[in-house]
Design goal:
By secondary structure, this protein is of the alpha+beta class. It folds into 2 domains: about 5-125, Beta Polymerase, domain 2, CATH 3.30.460; about 130-275. About 55% of the residues lie in helices and about 10% in strands. The chain is built from 13 helices and 4 strands. Strands 3-2-1-4 form a 4-stranded mixed β-sheet, sandwiched between helices. Helix 6 packs across helix 13 (about 260-275). The longest helix has 29 residues, at about 225-255. This is Nucleotidyltransferase domain-containing protein. InterPro entries: NT_sf.
């Protein structure tokens, strides 16, 4: 029996979903694109999303509900379909560098730099490329909105989901690594997971290197072993986040970022300072394939 190529299977689902959006929006849909790792490489079947971009002629009040309903219907069609993540907006707004749907700056950058046209007319060249300062502020706001929540902070003290959900485990560990790499090495574009991990592990005094190796191992499709992950998280997650938050806070101050964003990072850092690693991570056997 011929093995199924996971990248080809995911791309087929993306194409199917693009056609579904074409059916829904008809002549209002200008183009649909692949974004993310399926477009620029590094797709990890165990944890990667299927990122689809939908470009419309204009925005209507009913569009958010239409996108939400269509996406929910598509995600219900199978395990691969559940990985669908849809970004959308109107071409006039994207030309002006605005987001009138769901199209954050980092994803608009992917559209201009690394997208793959699935159907329609290629208009990626007409989209305004986000400025570096907009990208830095966007990634900082994403970090606060997604990673500084009470739910995530509770996981630092008593990991539950982090020990059972490989997707969340890899995202929670590798998001700050990607942000650090983007801020330091790839300013002007978002670092990929692979290059961020390579860059981070090359830093001689980087915190939580063993944990980052484990996250990269799981992202590559290996099973998440709670017995292995628990001590790694206990020893490494807080130092990793404190390093990221401290570095980002300094950057926000230097950039005279909005007060609310600086305040959010300052408070985040204070919350992390009240936590402490509780165990030493197991030593890494560099001769082994396992991290």
């Amino acid at each position: 029996m011929t093995a199924i190529d996971p990248v080809a299977a995911a791309r087929a689902v993306a194409a199917e979903c693009a056609r579904a959006y074409q059916d829904v929006f008809a002549e209002r849909l200008i183009a649909a694109y692949l974004l993310g790792s399926l477009a620029y490489g590094g797709y990890a079947p165990a944890v990667s999303d299927i990122d689809l971009a939908v470009i419309l002629t204009g925005a209507r009040d009913s569009d958010p509900g239409t996108v939400r309903t269509t996406s929910e219907t598509l995600r219900g069609q199978g395990s691969l379909h559940r990985k669908l993540s849809v970004f959308w907006g109107s071409l006039p707004a994207l030309r002006d560098g605005h987001d009138d749907g769901r199209f954050p700056a980092l994803d608009r950058l992917e559209l201009t730099d690394h997208s793959v046209l699935l159907l329609g007319v290629d208009v990626a060249g007409q989209v305004a490329r986000p400025a570096t300062d907009e990208l830095q502020l966007a990634s900082a706001r994403f970090a606060v909105d997604v990673l500084a929540t009470d739910e995530v902070t509770a996981e630092f003290d008593r990991p539950c989901r982090l020990l059972t959900d490989p997707v969340w485990f890899t995202k929670a560990v590798l998001f700050p690594v990607r942000f650090l790499c983007t801020n330091t090495k790839t300013t002007g574009r978002a670092a990929t997971n692979d290059e961020a991990v390579d860059w981070y592990l090359a830093q001689p005094r980087a915190a939580a290197q063993s944990l980052v190796r484990l996250a990269a191992w799981v992202r590559a499709g290996h099973p998440l072993d709670p017995a292995q992950a628990a001590p790694q998280l206990a020893a490494g997650l807080i130092p990793l986040y404190r390093h990221y938050v401290d570095e980002q806070t300094r950057r926000l101050h230097r950039a005279s970022a909005p007060v609310d964003l600086v305040t959010a990072f300052t408070r985040w850092g204070q919350r992390l300072a009240g936590l402490a690693p509780t165990a030493a991570a197991p030593s890494v056997d560099t001769a082994s394939e396992r991290p």
